């Protein structure tokens, strides 16, 4: 007996608006400190130029920061009791969420001054029987493009609900 | 220089503390409570401690290669999955092996082991390696 309802299937077909993120030096520096990066090309323009970039360059997982803002930079009333973005959570009787598999393909690097637009859709919604009951998988697909129209990254991310 | 297939990647060990978890949640604007609210995480979600973010672990795996090869290795793609949760206080040993080296592309099998030997995360990453 499946737990995914018709309502949840309709939810999975929703259109998310595109989100444009203007990347500044401070965003890159904050994130680089948070992951313990020490390479100066993430902090200092001269070091970035020496490394072959025109501006401070973001670490490779920076598109993740962009898509988290797209989901979570919303009003307080659009967050679930566990802090998840309500728009990302399927309308089911699940109460707990965890990260599943991630695949990222990278294109052009992200530089300070870029405007990166992320498009997002739900690629799959399915369920499996786990040891602790039914697990619901929401597979999201993200495409990141910069202001020149170059592909910056594609990401598939599965979040698991139980 | 391109490493040959079979080469072991020198391991790095990361032990993120509460400040690291806070900084990652803050920089990414990740609001999920299981990374900072201990009573919620234990009582509501049934975990023994605060969780180390999945994408932070993914980053550590990539850093094990970057600390080894520096700017000559540029990440092109990665797939990873979590096999067991990693909690605040866990030491994460990050290592791996070069699985394939073809032209300027190097494919690595990467892993994170916790102190007790449990595998937390595994992944496969492709790097562009410049001479």
How far apart are the first and last residues' alpha carbons of chain B, in Å?
A: 5 Å
What is the second-level CATH architecture of one domain in chain B? Answer: Roll
Average predicted local confidence, pLDDT of chain A: 95
In DSSP terms (H or I, runs of 4 or more residues), the helix count of chain A works out at 4
CATH superfamily of one domain in chain B: Hotdog Thioesterase
The ordered string of helix (H) and strand (E) elements of chain A is HEHHHEEEE
Number of strands of chain A: 5
Overall average pLDDT of chain B: 96
Structure characterization notes:
Chain A is an alpha+beta fold and 162 residues long. Chain A has helices at residues 6-11, 25-34, 45-50, 62-72, and strands spanning 19-22, 97-106, 115-130, 133-145, 151-161. Chain A has one domain (6-22, 60-161): Thiol Ester Dehydrase, Chain A (Roll), CATH 3.10.129. Chain A has 4 helices and 5 strands, in the order αβαααββββ. A 5-stranded antiparallel β-sheet of chain A has the order 1-3-4-5-2. Chain A is elongated, with a radius of gyration of 18 Å. The two termini of chain A are 15 Å apart. With 131 residues, chain B is α+β, with helices and mostly antiparallel strands. Chain B has a domain at 8-16 and 51-129: Thiol Ester Dehydrase, Chain A (Roll). Chain B has helices at residues 18-28, 38-43, 54-69, and strands at 8-14, 73-82, 92-102, 105-114, 119-129. A 5-stranded antiparallel β-sheet of chain B has the order 1-3-4-5-2, covered by helices on one side. The longest helix of chain B is centred in the middle third of the chain and has 16 residues, at 54-69. Chain B is elongated, with a radius of gyration of 16 Å. The mean pLDDT of chain B is 96. The chains are: A alpha+beta (162), B alpha+beta (131). At the A-B interface, α2, α4 and β2 of A face α1, α3 and β2 of B.
